[in-house]
Amino acid sequence: MGSQSDWETMKNAADTLEALDISYEARIISAHRTPDRLVRFSKGARDEGFKVIIAGAGGAAHLPGMTAAMTPLPVFGVPVQSRTLSGKDSLLSIVQMPAGIPVGTLAIGKAGAVNAALLAAAVLALMDDDLAVRLDEWRERQTDSVAEYPMDEI
Ligand code: RP5
Predict the structure, then answer these.
(1) What is the domain count for the chain?
(2) How far is the CA of 19 from the centre of ligand 1 (A)?
(3) Residue 62 is part of a domain; what is its CATH number?
(4) What ipTM was assigned to the predicted interfaces of this complex?
């Protein structure tokens, strides 16, 4: 993620990966403030053993696109809700990649962070049968948790 301030949102991705027993690393890498760190990480990610990158950033959110430019790994971008423009700036910065360098862009905020983790899990599950089972079970639990009829708030 681009900043410590993104962690509140991106922790939802981390929690979802943990629920699926997927190992991950959470790092702060700013495209603007730590460009050398961005280059080192992005260029070395595949050799370090990473399989999928989830990049969350807000405002002029260059992190996902710049990361994708420097790695062949799949990159999923999470637009973090910004204070001034509510994340529409983040979304447009991430989603409008020119043809040739893809970033799979998720929803703004918590939903995007959770879904980025689920999408990463779905990609990894293509090569990991045990994970595929855990992902199926996660979805079954989600389905079971939805009441058929609404209740008044207690
Ligand atoms: C972006 O700027 C970060 O991804 C963050 O969402 C936003 C604001 O960062 P801070 O000023 O809170 O560090 O680079």
Answers:
(1) 1
(2) 27
(3) 3.40.50.1970
(4) 0.96
